[in-house]
Amino acid sequence: MVDRKDIGSWLSGPDTSNISNYPGERLGLPESGRGSMARAGRRILAICIDWGLSYLIAIAFFGGNSMAILAVFALEQMVLVGTLGFSIGHRVSGIRVRRLDSAPVGLLAGVVRAVLICLLIPVIIVDADHRGLHDKAMKTLLVRR
Q1: Least confident of 12-16, 25-29, 110-114
Q2: Is the pLDDT of residue 34 over 80?
Q3: Distance CA 79, CA 114 (A)
Q4: What is the mean pLDDT of the chain?
Q5: Beta bridge partners of 140
Q6: Which InterPro entries does the record cross-reference, listed alphabetically (predicted)?
Q7: 53 compared with 104, residue with greater pLDDT
Q8: DSSP string, the chain
Q9: CA–CA separation, 65 vs 129, rounded Å?
Q10: 93 contacts 46 by C-beta, under 8 angstroms
Q11: Phi and psi for 20 in degrees, rounded to 5?
């Protein structure tokens, strides 16, 4: 005879034994404070600041051309993130980009991240640690300063 134990296992829900309690836990980061994963609010603020500055620069020098806005934004991301580890927006919102191994980000990572950010889709698709495909591709993460 079939009883509830045989058919009812799905009622208990999926196995959650290997799901982390907070973003960055699997990466060995603290839950909050300096060095913790940057949350969505800070990320959105940073990209809005960077995009706004790019827009102002494009208006001043290129007449507001939409491709110029994108080019200025990409150039800012490539150079500043690749060399300093943060863009102007990151700096204002208190976050920075770092590699998983804590090495400097580097220009190659800055260029690849910028290209993927400009494509937008890799930014929208994130994992449980709030890392987008652009971060996963270059083994980087955004942490609080």
Answers
A1: 12-16
A2: yes
A3: 9
A4: 88
A5: 99
A6: Pra-immunoreactive, RDD, UCP021697
A7: 53
A8: ---HHHH-GGGG-S--TT--SSTTGGGT--SSSTTSBPPHHHHHHHHHHHHHHHHHHHHHHHTT-HHHHHHHHHHHIIIIIHHTS--HHHHHHTEEEEETTS----HHHHHHHHHHHHH-HHHH-B-TTS-BHHHHHHTEEEEE-
A9: 36
A10: yes
A11: -75, 160
Which amino acid type is present at position 71?
A
Tell me the torsion sign for CA atoms 68, 95, 103, 125.
Answer: negative
- Provide the whole-model pTM: 0.81
Answer yes or no: are the C-beta atoms of 114 and 89 closer than 8 Å: no
Residue type, 44: I
What is the Cα 60 distance to its own chain's centre? 29
Is residue 90 within 8 A of residue 142, CB to CB? The reply is yes
Q: What percent of the chain has pLDDT above 70?
A: 86
Kindly tell me the burial class for residue 90, based on how many C-beta atoms sit within 10 Å of its own C-beta (0-12, 13-18, 19 or more): buried
Quote the percentage of the chain above a pLDDT of 90.
Answer: 62
Exposure class string for 101-113: b at 16+ Cβ within 10 A, else e: eeeebbeebbbbb
